[in-house]
Design goal:
Blueprint: H1 5-11, E1 17-18, H2 21-30, E2 34-39, H3 51-62, E3 66-71, H4 93-107, E4 121-124, H5 126-129, H6 134-140, H7 147-151, H8 154-160, H9 169-172, H10 174-189, E5 193-197, H11 201-215, E6 220-224, E7 237-238, E8 241-242, H12 252-260, H13 267-274, H14 279-291, H15 297-311, H16 313-326, H17 337-344, E9 349-352, H18 360-366, H19 373-381, E10 385-387, E11 390-391, E12 409-414, E13 418-424
Parallel strand pairs: 2-3, 2-5, 3-4, 5-6, 9-13
Antiparallel strand pairs: 1-6, 7-8, 10-11, 10-12, 12-13
Helix pairs in contact: 10-11, 12-15, 12-16, 13-14, 13-15, 15-16, 16-17, 18-19
């Protein structure tokens, strides 16, 4: 007997809709179910918004079933029109292949590809779609789709009758290609389940229908809810835009801070979706957090776990310590050059060849912490300037070599949140 993954996924908040609930539950209990999710290679990195789907696959595997991740190298050449008001820019095959390669590496942080019978699989649908001949595809697949079915889709109907938007035949064919994927996976790998975001329900139903009509197979579907934060905003966005899993697009420090800053009201939902902690453990953790919510211990724990999973424990420790420095939990005078180097990439930073024995007011202006010496003196007089975490009260304070941190740095802070790093480098 296998685990009822439908029950578990529903308990943790993954299920927005599912087909054939009773039959699917029985299928999970009696068989090792092979299920898949497709990932759009329109960018060279997945983002936090993809984590619901990724963790859906990870939970499927954890419960004893077999996950397949599809990198849409073929369908990505068309682009899913669902939820789009205009046609996507078509990407070159070279760019798509690069994006697929990047996505594959990120998925390996969540899925086990070497654990026996239910090892995860990573496939690229371009491997079979590129072999399809146009006439054969129309004869063998297109005949199962009526025009009325296609144009009655809400996202199609909203554009097909709008002269300013319209929709191309290329986009309209996407649903056939995704359905073809499901049928192919059913025949080649015994895949009976497709999962995806709630906007994929129609595409999933089309694939189920094609597998039934063309191959006589009974297939199933599950969709995940759109993840919103407590303010009703799409989860996975920061002030600077989407939060990516690639450190080239979102620094590890910013990735860590994203989780540290999540709202208390979102914690239970995020722990259920994005961690493997049992429900009782989550409840206990959140109960402890509620006693001192201002310490944000639950957020810090979540940030640690997510950063470890995506970027590794060493990187997570580095940015955790960097965060602790900025928030006064670690004395900056005790940290090493490597950690200061990490901070220099995350907060305003400047290098100078000036001698260390210069006036602090000059450094405040040099670092753009103050616009003028006059402002710098005023800030010092008001008690709002800190050097290496220590309040400065004398307007004429001169720096000396004893102020240098490891690597030739000094840190200055103006007010509560304006942190700056200055690195003194040799003129030679």
């Amino acid at each position: 007997m296998y685990s009822n993954a439908l029950e578990k996924l529903r308990e943790r908040g993954f299920v927005e809709w599912s087909s054939h609930d009773k039959e699917l539950a029985e299928h999970f209990i009696s068989d090792m179910v092979t299920g898949y999710i497709g990932f759009d290679p329109s960018a060279d990195s997945l983002h936090v918004g993809n984590l619901v789907a990724i963790m859906g696959l990870a939970w499927l595997q954890r419960l004893g079933h077999k996950p397949i991740a599809i990198a849409g190298g073929g369908t990505g050449r068309i682009g899913d029109p669902s939820g789009k008001s205009s046609e996507r820019n078509l990407l070159s095959e070279e760019i798509i292949n690069h994006n697929v390669s990047c996505i594959e590496k990120q998925l390996r942080h969540f899925l086990n590809f070497d654990c026996g019978e239910n090892s995860a699989m990573l496939l690229n649908n371009n491997d079979w779609l590129k072999k399809e001949l146009f006439i054969e595809f129309l004869r063998d697949t297109g005949k199962y789709f009526s025009v009325s079915f296609l144009i009655n889709r809400e996202y199609v109907r909203s554009r097909v009758f709008d002269a300013d938007k319209s929709i191309t035949y290329t986009e309209l064919s996407y649903i056939l290609l995704q359905a073809f994927d499901f049928n192919h996976l059913y025949n080649e790998y015994g895949c009976t389940l497709q999962m995806g975001g709630n906007d994929q329900q129609v595409n999933i139903l089309a694939g189920m229908d094609l597998a039934r009509k063309k191959s006589g197979g009974q297939c199933y579907g599950i969709t995940f809810p759109l993840l919103l934060n407590s303010h009703g905003e799409k989860f996975g966005k920061s002030e600077s835009g989407a939060v990516y899993l690639s450190q080239d697009k979102t620094s590890i420090y910013k990735f860590y801070q994203f989780w540290v800053n999540v709202d208390d009201n979102d914690l239970e939902k995020l722990y259920k979706l994005f961690t493997f902690r049992e429900i009782d453990e989550i409840n206990e953790l959140l109960n402890e957090h509620s006693k001192n919510p201002h310490l944000r211990e639950a957020q810090k724990t979540l940030a640690w776990e997510m950063t470890c999973r995506v970027h590794g424990e060493e990187a997570a420790k580095r940015v955790r310590d960097a965060s602790a420095v900025l928030f006064g939990e670690i004395d900056i005078r005790d940290v090493d050059k490597e950690l200061l180097d990490t901070l220099s990439a995350e907060i305003p930073f400047v290098e100078t060849c000036e001698e260390i024995n210069t006036n602090l007011t000059d450094i405040l202006v040099l670092s753009s912490a103050c616009s003028s010496k006059g402002e710098a003196k005023r800030k010092i007089k008001e008690g709002g300037v800190y050097l290496n975490g220590i309040k400065i009260t004398e307007e004429g304070t001169q720096l000396s070599s004893t102020d240098l941190l490891d690597g030739g740095y000094i840190q200055i802070r103006v007010g509560k949140k304006d942190f700056r790093l200055v690195k003194f480098i040799s003129k030679s």
